[in-house]
Amino acid sequence: MTPQETRFPFYSTLFAGIATGVAAWLGAEHWPDGLMAQKAAAVAIAFVFVFAGAFLFTARTRRGAPNWMLAAGIAIVIGLSAVWLISNTFKPEGGSYEGSSDLVTSWWATIVPLLFVLLPFVQRDFQKSQRFMSDILSVELYRKYWENLFILAFAGLLVGLYWLVATLCAALFDILKIFELGRFIEYEPVGWTASAIIFAFGISLGCRYPSLLNMLTGLIATVCRAILPPVAVFMIAFAVTLPIVGLDMIWSTGRSTPMLLAMILVAVVSLNGAAQCGGEGGLPYPQWLRSVIYVLLALLPVFALLAGYSLYQRIDQYGLTPDRYYPALLVVLALALTLSYGVMFIMKRSPWLTTLNTVNTPVILVAALMAMLTLTPWLNSQEVSASNQFARLAAGKSTAESVDLGLLRFQLGRSGQERLAQIKAMAGGESSLSQAQAQVLSQRLEVLKTANYYYDWKEKERLAELYSKPIGLEWLDEGVADVAAFEGAVELEMCRERLCFAFTLDLDEDGDKEVLVAEDIEYVYDLKVYDADKAGAWRKVGQLDLSRASLCCNRDIAELLKNRDFQLQQPRYQSLRLGNALFSFSPE
What we know:
- 64% of the residues lie in helices and 6% in strands.
- It has 21 helices and seven strands.
- It has helices at 10-29, 35-57, 65-89, 100-122, 132-137, 141-175, 180-186, 188-207, 210-245, 248-251, 256-276, 287-318, 322-347, 352-373, 381-395, 405-410, 413-427, 435-450, 454-468, 483-487, 557-562; strands spanning 473-475, 500-505, 514-518, 526-532, 538-545, 576-578, 581-583.
- The strands form two sheets. The chain has a five-stranded mixed β-sheet with strand order 1-2-3-4-5. A two-stranded antiparallel sheet has the order 6-7.
- Helix 3 (65-89) packs antiparallel against helix 4, helix 9 (210-245) packs across helix 12 (287-318) and helix 15 packs parallel to helix 17.
């Protein structure tokens, strides 16, 4: 494969690599402290990365004003969203909001795919004789996405090879007691800048081999053409089986929405790949096989609706969370795409590639707009989720016992903190909540104050609920004189979720009986032993463990205990004390 016959832009690529490397180093290692400085740094880094990426990826494009305008627009959107992100991550008085790390993660998880999705539009070779939107809508997205993916993979491979060789060289020099080379390679400015320069040269080199990129993209298209028919048969069989076995089978998995969306994704990618291969009249399969594909296209919206209904059930039951917000957007996108495919294939009998290109670009642009809206103060995942959780409580859909207070405090950042303050006001009487509901809410808020993170709060909520339950203890004999005093010594998590059984026995033959407690009478694997001190206070002193050789004799323990049909067994092997150390025998 010969490279594109143009002069390699060595110095401009080197400059782009140095600029992005320095920006990445400053952003990662020397992030400023003040909010204004952070916002300015975020905007500057966004512009550096977007314009450097636009320059590198448009090596085969006659760059004009539309290309740079698109790049500037993307940089402005990302810069403004970064400013908003900083405002919702860091407090003016210092520190960060609890749960803001999740917002940062979702921001990156949105920005990176958004840049990749919009990149082919920046790469477009705009024609002066055509309208701007005509050029935008005629971009061959499928092929460009695969080409850019191969270019990025090649650039990433070069960076990996650089670090492999650099680490090997440093290790060899370390053998010679020359440690300066290793320190130089690991020096942070050098590491960031070198990686960025290698990555930039990888992108430039990848763009210089369009014939190789076309070959790789054609290979992917051929694979897609081969797998689309079996995918169609499998999905049709799945759709036919669903009414027979019922939908409860997929609802019970708890993963029905991502599984159905993954099926749709595989079908869409395979369909677009097969369309690249063309065929007679632009139709890649015989008539009978195309009929199977058309049946699949008719079923894809049904799969999208099933995914949406599954997700709706969870949202209706528990409310919106960031983990449900993004899948909801994907369901909307999948439904729009699959419905468009079905309508276009029914209405038009033009070549598949033309039909798909007509649908793909508008849907992708709508998806990009949706992604941008999730980076705004009004439609981001934390704001929408916090508003939904609070609205459900205010409307009575969520009760004081079921509202997820830990989600608001620990996972929804600044938006969650604001709604939590409103809930505290509700608990204080500034709402239509009943007195009992307000009291429950106040108690749960007090537990929330003591928690350090979400699962710590869940555990403390569970323990608080357990502690509020009475101890369930059934005595198999006369028991002890002061039952209330003994129950106060029982461990918090015992005998509250299920009934325990207790009986008295003088284990140490001192004339005072101990209490033995079984947590589950049907399967007894150990007996907790409680003893009273001279003041009459009970405490747990240990437990009797069931021997492994006795597991088969575990069925009639309850009856044996009730009938006092037992005997004390002296250990065959005594314990050994050496000073303050005690060695006890454990059977094999």
